[in-house]
Every structure is written in structure tokens, then in C-alpha cells.
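Late entry, written up from scratch paper. The run itself happened at the end of the previous shift, but nothing got recorded in the book at the time, so transcribing now.
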Amino acid sequence: HLACGIGAGAKGFNMANPRVGNLRGRFECAGGIDVDPGAITNFEHMTGVKGTVMDLFSRDQYRAFHGRDPGPEWREAVPDDIREVFGRLDVAFASFPCKGFSSLLSQSISLTDKYQALNALTLRGIWLLLEAYRDDPVAAIIFENVPRIATRGRWLLNQIEALLRSFGYSVNEDTHDCGVIGNLAQSRKRFLLIARYPE
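Output as recorded:
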């Protein structure tokens, strides 16, 4: 789980009971990465699996988002860092920050360097994942965000999809409603991109 947050998505995967015909499967969580130490603490409590505090920003993105250079203890994540955290993967789930794409943020503020850096984290995160598993591709990559990413973030989605296709993935965009899926008393629509490695 990239940008795993508190682990609600991971817990959902852990509770899943996938079936195809007579075959039954289960998910075994390989871990989560998030920049927020508090989120990682909650992730570990919710999943029973070790999480990793890691900033996935590039140095330029860090500067644009924070308005300053990182401290001496900070270093830019590389693909090997992702592979080291997770080991071998069959499925990767990414839920990168959605603030810059959200309709709750005005268009003018969404265009600032700060939020453009946050938005671009989606592309960098997928690139890190693909490079980490270049020689052993992840069978399915699931990427979710707010529905407005399909308009406000279309330029990034186009790059993400082109990158996924260049690595041999077939890509599908869709939306789903967490309220319907989870039988909740609310409607919470989300954008969903599913990339499948056909081989």
C-alpha cells in the first residue's frame, strides 16, 4: 500500500474473500508506506503489519510543497527503497493525496506550486513502483483518488497511463461508490484506475 494512510484500505484487502469458480484466495499485506508517522502507527494497529515512514517526493517536489530545502536527514526515495519495503508483490494499492484534485480546493489554489507538487506525487509514486518491479512486474496495480482527478488531473493521468502501458500494462479507468460497496449510510464516490499485467 503506497500512501497507505491509517490502513483502512489495507484492512479492507485483508478482510476480502476473493473467489473465482472453486478457487479461493486471500490477501497477505506486505506493508505500507506513508510520510506521516502517526498514520503509520495507526496502519500497524489496524493491519498488524509493519509500516514504513518514507517521503516519496522528489527533492524539487519537496521544495515546492514545503517552500524550503529538506533537512540533512532527508533523502530522496529510489525504486530500491520500495522493493526493500515490500519484497515480492502480486497487487499494489496506491491512494495518493487528493487535496490538489478535490473540488473542496479552489482552482486558483490548486494551481499553486505547493499543490502541483502534491498532485505530481501520483506520477512519481507510480514510477517508483514500476521501476522497483521492472524485472518482476506486479500483476495488478490499483490506484484510487477523488473523481475530479479525471478532469483537474487529466494531464497527470495521461502520463501515468502512458507510463503503465510502456511497462506492458493494460489500463482501465472507472469510478466506484464506497457507500455502495461498504453498505454505508453515505455516498462517497472515488476514481479507480486498475492496471493489469496480462502476462
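DSSP finds nine helices and eight strands in the chain.
(Scratch paper discarded after transcription.)
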